[in-house]
Amino acid sequence: MLEAAWLIPAFPLAGFLMLVLFGRRMGEPVAGWFATAAIGGSFLSTVVVFIGLLGEDPSERFFLQKIFTWIPSGTFSVDLGFFVDPLSITMCLFVTGVGSLIHLYSIGYMHGDANFSKFFLYLNLFAASMLMLVLGDNLLITFLGWEGVGACSYLLISFWFEDPANASAGKKAFVTNRVGDFGFMLGTFLLFNHIGSIRYADVLTSHISTGTATVIVLLFLLAAAGKSAQIPLFVWLPDAMAGPTPVSALIHAATMVTSGVYLLTRLNPVLAQADPWATSVIAWLGAMTALVAALAAISQTDIKKVLAYSTVSQLGYLFLAVGVGAYVPAIFHMVTHAFFKALLFLGSGSVIHGMHDEQDMRRMGGLAKLMPITAGTFIVGWLAIAGVPPFSGFWSKDEILLFAWNDNKLLWLVGFVTALLTAFYMTRQVILTFFGRTRFWDATAGEIGEAFDTIAERAQAKFVAAAEGVTVASAAVDKAKLDLDKRTGAVTKAQTGLEEATSALAASSEGADGYDKLVRAVDKATKGVPKAEAALQKAVSKTAELELAVEKAESAIAETQIESKQAASISYDLPGDAQYVTAFSEAPDITAVADDMPDSYRHRQEYHPHESPWTMTAPLVVLAFAAAAGGLMNLPFTHKLHFLANWLEPSLFANEVHVSTSTSGKWMLAVVAVLGGLSAIVAAFAVYLRGRGDPAKIERKDLALAVTWDSVLAKFMGGPGRALFDGASWFDKTFVDGAVNGAAAAAQATGKGLKPSQSGLARQYALFITGTAGLIGLWFVLRLVAS
Amino acid sequence: MIATLSGTSILASEAASFSVLPALILVPLLTAIVILLLPANRVAELKLTALAGSAIAGAMAIWMMAAFDKNDAGFQFVVNQPWLESMGLNWHFAVDGISLFMVVLTGILFPIAILATEPHHDPKPYYMWLMILMAGSFGVFMALDLLLFFVFFEVVLIPMYFLIGGWGHGQRIYAALKFFIYTMTGSALMLVGIVSLALLTASRTGNALTFDVTQLAEAQALGTTAQRLIFLSFALAFAVKVPLFPLHTWLPDAHTEAPTAGSVILAGVMLKLGTYGYIRFGVYLFPQAAHDLAWIFLTLGVIGILYAAAVATMQKDLKRLVAYSSVAHLGFIVLGIFSLNTQGLTGAVFQMVAHGVSTGALFILVGWIYERRHTRQIAELGGLQKAAPIFAAAFTLVMLSSVGLPGLNGFNGEFLILLGGFQAARWWTVFAVLGVILAALYLLWAYQRVFHGTPEGDNATMPELRLSEGLVILPLLFLIVAMGVYPKPMLERIEPSVERLVAHVEANVEGFSEPGPERVPEHPGDARTLMDKLEEAEANADLGEESDSHEGESDE
Q1: CA separation, residue A617 to residues A65, A94, A109, A252, A343 (Å)
Q2: b/e per residue, B224-247, with b = 16+ CB within 10 A?
Q3: Residue B87 CB coordination number (10 Å)
Q4: What domains sit in chain A, N to C, each tagged with a CATH number?
């Protein structure tokens, strides 16, 4: 049965190859089912091997399988071979088990994606790589898997590559991990240099001097810190959430990110031979990461980012455990964490799926009614991670805290505080997502802004129209005034004419020549005056009328000004931008702008968050059971119930630390942990569900050191880091190449005398040089012949 | 008729019922003559002739690989005919595990380079020069007579010069001249070195004058100073070819302006003349000097890895970026060579082939991007994965191979080099490993800018990989995976010759023994070893518990 070991990675690898060849033809959903079947086959193979291993005597549960010699070179030789022992099979069981569920889930989640089959191709390749990592019989096969999962992580984070942010996140993950690989490679080299082999069968059984072992441990710690997102290399993991949510669940929560812990556990005999301070470094690094990440999780508003920082924090716990020699609790918590964190991620994916790709918790709330299965299973995950008995997380976390207490009370304190924070931020997440008022339909700041923009635009249009009216009216007034002047002139002229005519008439006498004519002129002038006066009168009234119009237009402008001022002066809450939200945060009042809300808002009103299809909820239910009952794996009450500890014993070579704490002490610690966790939950309920206390005082940005570190690093890479590369490039162009070109120019200048040969034709240069070389050669030949 | 020297295998040369090595040179040369006789306007026939000639030569090279005796560390397929006896000149050709795959790589890359692109004008001289280049490349890897080697070393320059100058882009004349003058300057010194070596050896040993590499290597007649000086004269010529920092600036220009086929051959074959030269003519002829002066080359190699990677990061031209990545990759190879141990040297030889395949493929793909988009400026590209997903997938595979992902060909050589380097030159290697981080940075960043994002303008309509193109690139993609997954057939052919070389160095350098691990496990561990260890550890722990020490650390 143990011989089936090679099938474990072979199934997903074959799935990958088939999908490369036929994936496009299979299409949706066949490709997804095919990939799920491949990983399912791997799970069954693992179970077969597991049963086979159970059949062996506990002290003989080692099985090595060689497929072929991979890289032979002198004294160095590594095989493509597998190392089957309780530890590697434990890993395989949960990797393939959780992996199968997530494959199944993805069929629903990736529905309709243009690259459906490609997604499953990557997932299968990831699974194959992860299983190589776990099962490799030497450090190089582990490294093969290590890099393979890194590459798959890169490909899957940037799966939706059209968005530059996703592409950047993928690159960031790969490059940051490469920093860790620096440690992996050097650690491997140092091991080989010291003991002449990198096969686990040799590495785990060889004596290594303390100094060398210490350096090796620190180098592998660097590697592990990269892959498992510990200080200072954790920065890639929150960004990795850019990938599709099943990827976050499988790779960036349950499996790949635990590789570092697996590696350190696998190397426990080396850790045991290192100076104790080296393992203390592991423990403290883990503890600090756990705390710092938990502090950052409290102020996150993206549902996946909370879980991302939570994952970093939980991985910190695992490092803490490994560092204090608590290998079984580390693996125990790794497995339970795989259950409940995969559950939480898949739950968040279900939420995102059901909410039209919304990831902001401030826009969720009240989903328990709309998505009951998702909510119910998510709550199980929450209770598990918060350490509420009897859910799985309680048992495994409690074990770690116990070992921490046994090692160093300060470590325990950090772990305990982290546990409180964990219970708090997870409660916050559950409340904001599933309870209270559904804020999904609320207008967002952007939408309200848009509405106000619409209103302001309208006011502006009115203003422009009014201003135009004023202009037109003013022009008319001007014209009318001109007309008025003209009329006034006409009246004057008519009066002058009348006077002239009258006086002319007076000067003349009746019967005189032209008298009649004058009389007629006077008549005419007399008639003309009232006519002109009437016209004037008309012009005056018209002018007045127009002036009134101008006045009116001007007052209209003032009105529109007031209107747009009013539009600008209405103060409103920006719900999307409001950092701090509780379950019953009120919807923004949009009565002022209700008629002008944009289409996105109107369309959303018609959309209803809904429960996901069964391919997605079924894995949630299975994982919820696992997360609830996972503690059964390793119950603390009697030695016999320590199933996992007994099972893993052979892989740990008696390096697991023995706890000296008394039974009553253990009970005390457990009670303290439970009470602490419950009070944190109650506190979160008070703040977010009851509205006591101000969230702003809790979700403090200055406590999110992890976020600060990320931005400092980004600034460094964009600033001095980039400048360094730019400098190298400039140096190369200016000095290294410049020196060559300068020399060439100088040579050309001195060679001016040979102008006729400088015809500029490259061929002539070439011929000249070849000729010269030939002559030199000939000279040597002649000399040789002569001698 | 055939003089076999120093462990050469008579069996292997008899297996070669006809002299395959001279034939490898003659086939492309004859093809060049046929092309010369063809009318210049028969474009299709010209291409077909060149393709047929190079494919026949390639097939012969592959046949030779199949006939190669992997248990024989010495030279095989030996041809050794007197040329100018009075001067000790011989037509001496042979291959061993070190040169075998370089010959095969040459045989594979030429037909692919011919298929991948067509010249935009004057196909006749283009194909003629390519064929002459192929003949010269074969010759240079097979020659075991120093003057013969020198002739081939120079001969390959001329066709490459014309290929860049005649069919290149942009500043092609400048680039071609720079390439030519640079390498000529290097080799002029080497010629002086060659002649001095032969004369000095003849006068010291009292034997007849000879340019035979194996005889000169066995003689080891030079004093320390003479050996160092002559070694440096060789080393300089090779440093230009590799190229080593700070002699590398001809390479980005030559690569960028060369036509695609030129870039492929330049990166795939011609750069390896330098690293091959270091092994065959540096370490083999001058073991003492190579050992004493190794620090210079280790240092320059490691500087090259980090410096070229940093410069590559900021390149705006995609082809230039690949060119700088070559400088970095070749730095690894130099590190491996001057580690002077089995892993380092084997890794170096493997990496030479792997780099030829990956970078060759990379240049072909970049060439196709240029044909489609008429630009190589990274800033003008973007989102190509949306328009051409299969093209992008091929590029991804080649890029990951170049990044050195395990399971692909780029990893195995790099790993062995670093492993060997760590035994021999620990601190240099520590810095070299940093180069592995940088390689991921510049390649992934370039990929992101070229292929990720939403395509705009002409990028949105970039044509997908055509079936004919797919068939051209497929052999290289296959090699990338095959060499990565199952490198054993190559490694076991390289290793005997490398071990023989290391033994040669050990024999001729006093106090030198191959840098290796501090100890080697007596028996390779197996499941039983683990069970014993477990039993012992648990027994210790029980003891510890009984004596009330709660930390049950088991220190054997």
Answers
A1: 38, 19, 10, 20, 10
A2: eebbbbbbbbbbbbbbbbbbbbbb
A3: 18
A4: 276-440+613-703 (no CATH), 446-569 (1.10.287.620), 705-737+761-786 (no CATH)
Please state whether B374 falls in left (phi above 0), alpha (psi between -120 and 50) or beta. left
Q: How many CB atoms lie under 10 A from the CB of residue A295?
A: 22
Spell out which residues of chain B touch residue A207, defining contact as CB-CB under 8 Å. 555-556
* Length, in residues, of chain A: 787
Smallest CA-to-CA distance from B433 within B328, B294, B300 is with B328
Say whether B521 and A737 touch across the interface (CB within 8 A): no
At residue A751 the predicted structure's pLDDT band, cuts being 50, 70 and 90, is low
Tell me the C-alpha distance between B312 and B309, whole Å.
Answer: 5
CB B146 within 8 A of CB B211: yes
Q: For residue A279, count other CB atoms closer than 10 A to its CB.
A: 23
Q: Is the dihedral of CA A482, A483, A486, A488 positive or negative?
A: negative
Q: Angle, nearest 10°, between helix axes A392-407 and A303-323? A: 40
pLDDT attached to residue A575: 46
pLDDT tens track for A683-701: 999 999 888 888 888 888 8
Alpha-carbon distance A762 to B162, whole Å? 9
Report how far residue A180's alpha carbon sits from residue B407's, in angstroms, rounded to the nearest whole number: 19
Q: Return residues 263-302 of B near A (CB < 8 Å).
A: none
* Per-residue confidence (pLDDT) for residue A782, from 0 to 100: 57
Indicate if the alpha-carbon torsion angle A188, A191, A194, A195 is positive or negative: negative
What is the rounded CA–CA span in Å between residue A387 and residue A673? 8
Assign A767 a pLDDT band (cuts: 50, 70, 90).
Answer: low
Question: Using 50, 70 and 90 to split pLDDT, how confident is the model at A13?
Answer: very high
Helix A259-266 × helix A643-652 angle, to 10°: 60
**H or E element at residue B372:** helix B342-373
**Where do the H-state alpha helices sit in A228-275?**
236-239, 245-249, 259-266, 268-273
| Amino acid occupying residue B23 | A
Sign of CA dihedral A517, A518, A521, A523: negative
The secondary structure element, H or E, covering residue A19 is: helix A7-54
Q: Which of A119, A716, A732, A779 to mutate to test the interface with B (most CBs of B within 10 A)?
A: A732
Confirm if A86 and A651 have CB atoms less than 8 A apart: yes
| pTM reported for the whole predicted model | 0.89
Count of CB atoms situated within 10 Å of the CB of B419: 30
Per-residue model confidence (pLDDT) at position B5: 43
Query: CB B205: neighbour CB atoms within 10 A?
Result: 14
C-beta separation of A516 from A499 below 8 A? no
H or E segment at A83? strand A76-84
Q: What is the pLDDT of residues B63-98, one digit of tens each?
A: 999 999 999 999 999 998 887 777 778 889 999 999
**Residue A199 DSSP code:** B
Q: A102 CA to chain B: closest CA distance, Å?
A: 25
DSSP β-bridge partners for residue A64:
A83
Residues in chain B with CB shorter than 8 Å from the CB of A179 are 437
Cβ atoms of B357 and B487 closer than 8 Å: no
The dihedrals phi and psi of B193, each to the nearest 5 degrees, come to: -60, -45
Percent of chain A past pLDDT 70, that is, above it, reads 92
Residues B462 and B470: their CA atoms lie apart, in Å, by 16
Number of residues written out for chain B: 556
Instruction: Name the nearest CA neighbour of A338 among A292, A396, A290.
Output: A396
Alpha-carbon separation of residue A455 from A217, A465, A568, A599, B331 (angstroms): 65, 15, 9, 15, 65
Determine whether the interchain pair A74/B516 forms a contact, defined as Cβ–Cβ distance below 8 Å: yes
- Give the dihedral of Cα atoms A432, A438, A440, A445; nearest 10 deg: -80
